[in-house]
Model the fold of this input.
Amino acid sequence: MSRIGVFTCHCGENIGATVDCAKVAECTRNVPGVVHSVDYKYMCSDPGQTMIKEAIKEHNLTGVVVAACSPRMHEPTFRNAVEEAGLNPYLCEMANLREHCSWVHEKVDATTDKAADLIRVMVEKVKHNTPLLPIRVPVTKRALVLGGGIAGIQAALDIANAGHKVVLVEKSPSIGGHMSQLSETFPTLDCSQCILTPRMVEAARHPNITLMTYAELEKLEGFIGNFKATIRKKARQLDEKLCTGCGMCITKCPQKKIPDEFNEGLGKRSAIYVPFPQAVPNKPVIDKDNCTFYKSGKCKVCEKMCPTGAIRFDQQDELVTLDVGAIVLATGFKVMRTDKFPEYGYGKYADVIDGLQFERLASASGPTLGAMKRPSDGKAPETIVFVACSGSRDRAKGVPYCSKICCMYTAKHAMLYKHKMHHGKAYVFYMDIRSGGKDYDEFVRRAIEEDDVKYIRGRVSRIYEEDGQLIVKGADTLLGGEPVEIKADMVVLATAVQAQDGSEELAQKLHVSYDPYHFFAESHPKLKPVETNTAGIYLAGACQAPRDIPETVAQASGAAAKVACLFSRDELTREPVVAVVNRLPAPTFSYCVGCFLCQSACPYQAIEAEEIRGRDGTLIKTLAKVNAGLCQGCGTCVSTCRTKAIDIQGFSNEQIFAELMTL
Amino acid sequence: MKIGYYPGCSLLGSSREFDESVRALAPALGLELVHVPDWNCCGASSAHVLDHRLALALPARILAQAEAAGLTEILAPCAACYNRLSTARDTLEKDPALAREIEAIIEQPVTGKVRIVNILEVLDRFSDVIPGKITKPFAHKVACYYGCLLVRPPKVLKFDRAEDPRSMDRLMAAAGAAPQEWNFKTECCGAAFSVTRTDLVAKMSGKIVDNAVKHGAEAIVVACPMCQSNLDMRRPEINAHLGADHTIPVLFITQALGLAMGIDANQLGLQRHMVPAVMTPAAV
Done:
């Protein structure tokens, strides 16, 4: 006979203001099987939990229903409390009176009645609950970090320094990411390369870190602690062991007019190349799309010139399978580069560039060696205009969110310009200046007050060329909407930060959620900012949202701490909410007839075949069997099973029917 | 192909040549124009600054008339008509309560079944056949001038790229012309201020004419009666303002295409222009 306790929570005003909790507790007492029913203001608080624990002992309860909020947050809380009182935690269930009732209805009698119904349903389920034991799985103590920008490098270093093995995978030929392209960094104006390159070298030399550049994730299987990742190592057409990085091949390559990705198209590179001189590893790759040999079958100059014979024209991509226990996603961002803003002439006029291109122009390692020269004719721009929010905070044509880093880098750009061109004029068109952060606002003030950058609050409506100059038409909305027209030599658009290309596909490969703009979604916006909804996969940096360097590094260290925490245990416990195929005594063995419809339906490849053999070894029956380690408890197999032989533990057909029948 | 035709008042008045050229071009393309029966003024340019309901009721009645006649699409060559009709249709579609109110005013049902299209959209449908019909290529450098009403607001009109439209450039290229990159494709010409503030229109239209000439254009091609009349009829004021002597003609897209397709200049109404349109086929 069930002895069930029901604990109704007011959740402060959240439930209490709409639902008459006392009345709910009162009428629940009459539900068959309920021996104890109370209400309390905050059931999740310490006194609330104590109430539950004491009631279990006092009334010798066999099951508990907590009628409160969504189980997402507090189911573990109450199950722990129940366990501490000596009851199996899976005999405790939650009725969701908040999201399913009080938040969505008005304060009327029917709302209270519905709350009582929700509890009655749960009581019926708990009556059919059975004690379950958590599943224990081992942990592979090796992490996979996807993305070799500053986020990935920092996460890899922190995990490696905690004593664990890390594989750092980067899709481009070198680690370093966007940070390696930046000239100086705000708010201190220290050189980006100077602070980044030592980290890159450290990552490459760390005994616990394996670097896989020019490689991408092909496939991911498994689950927390036990992932199996397939990495595609793209062919560099080079034997990396033989290559010394002397650069002879690059010098002799006849194909030298390819727009350079590292310099954002402002410079040129050869077909065999390293992205930049400080690249890690310093080993070239052949760009097959532009290589004369791959296009016409003739050339091979690099092969002839290589002193160590390292060039391999016949090298193929290689697939590597890795067992890893945790994954850090650090795949970064891109800047908007579309023709969404034809009114700014972007793509039409060579001297209208984006922020990343300006970084390369201002960088000592850039195509102009840091000299201020505009792309069209190399003239030093006497007047330069910066347009903030190009595409950001623009519901009509761009993205609705704030790209966050642009206010700061635009101030930095204007400042760098003024430091190089003392007599030049720098204008910034802006909507608002968003410079929250340590020493950030001071930095912007410095640009305005000390470096005499003219800030104009207003939008730019149009940019066009006239007599070799760019006419920037805008409005100064602080001075009564006066139209402003500036004759500029160069314009820099702070284009919106967007999710990296291919983010959607990657998220789907990893079963990680993403937002409408394809940024990866964190598990909880406040309390789980580095976790994803998939256990064992963590987030770092701008793949989650626009971020600057300090935030990225902090988040990367946070993700690394989560990984180290996971690796501190030898085995993990998993929720036992998995499918099981029922077993019966011989000669039936199971209702399962071995049709394996479930196997084709299972999205996680968790169904295996199990052979039942007699003592003499003859095959009696083949049954489906669920691999509890792979099963995610989705229930697809249950709905496809023709003989009702599969059930989800804790959500059996019997339990669900009992819930429905009580309504 | 049959299509509803709403000429609007300017095509019967100051821009008769637009109407003439549309009607001259239509049979050549196999397009049958069916007049919206008993049509009225769309309300531009003054209704929408005076009375919100009037600004909706006038175009709503045109839509209702078209619906009643079983039309599903109306060609409105005048950019202002196109804009007002589209805006009204969009407003009524989004606000059913308001739609019922307007229906009561005009005493006719409006379901919003009728789509409004501009002349460029319609010509674009014939982009496959037009090149084959070009007998006298319009071999001139042209500045395609769209004006503001054809593309804005983009959310309502959903036509071309609002800030850098290309459809007319494509059509003119098909007619053998060389469309020039220039700066003021969608700038305002001053529109209805032509009468009350001619000085402003001279200034605004002056910029447009001047820029087109600067970028090497030999003709300005338009698809809006207001643009055409301001750039053409106000040329003396424009030239006085600029201190220039610009003689660049301003043609409707239908006139330019018509010439290229070998249609007689007078049939296209070219003789009606203030600035002589010397783009006769003979000159090509």
